[in-house]
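Input.
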Amino acid sequence: MTMVLIAALLYVAAAVALVHGVGRDPAPANAWWAVPAGAAVALHAAAHMLVWRDVGTELHFYAALSLVGLGMAVLTMLYDIRGRVAALGVIVFPIAAAALISYGRGAHVASSVPDWRLQVHAGCALLSYATLAIAALLALLLWAQERALRRREFHRWLRALPPLTELESLLFRTIGVGFALLTATLITGVLFVDDFFAQHLIHKTVLSVLSWLAFGALLLGRWRHGWRGPRAVGWTLAAMALLVLAFFGSKFVLELVLGRPA
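Output.
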């Protein structure tokens, strides 16, 4: 638990450093916030690895939530270290800290996924959720930026965002990567999962496919018709909502409400 608390504090320190940098300079020359962020990510990963060494692979609700938070933090570092969108770290790092603390406070029980093929499927799923969660946050930032510019409200937090067209381009590139990972998740699920009904997976599959179709329609609309702005934001958030219901919604009900493994 000590490692978990230290990692959480480092995440918060990185977020505070980003806020301070934005307030002091619209384009900070240094990136010393990456030091606590990198240390937090390393400790976050180490916390999971130590538990896996002792009890085996964990993919219960809080473990999955923490792993998605870890993936989001890693992606955020890759974006922020290049000076792309500092506001993302301000949001994601506290989320990763909260997810890690919730994981550290819970009981650690190995999940029934010993087969390497199912672990590949689970890994693709967690990566796709983390990537598309980042896309959803970018969509919200895009909406807030458009709204502020339309009203000619030039808030200080706008300094933490790239130009509108660059942010929009970053959003769709992130969605493209997440869509590819979600496609891999569905393909490995079809290939490696034996019985959807016995494993309580049919509802997850239906919602995941609906989310995949929504993200695919958004990318097609962008390519064919140049979708952007509020329409792109709406489709992104709707597709992400379906994905959250598919995985975390079902795991919450099965594990925390009904007391059964998801």
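The radius of gyration is 19 Å.
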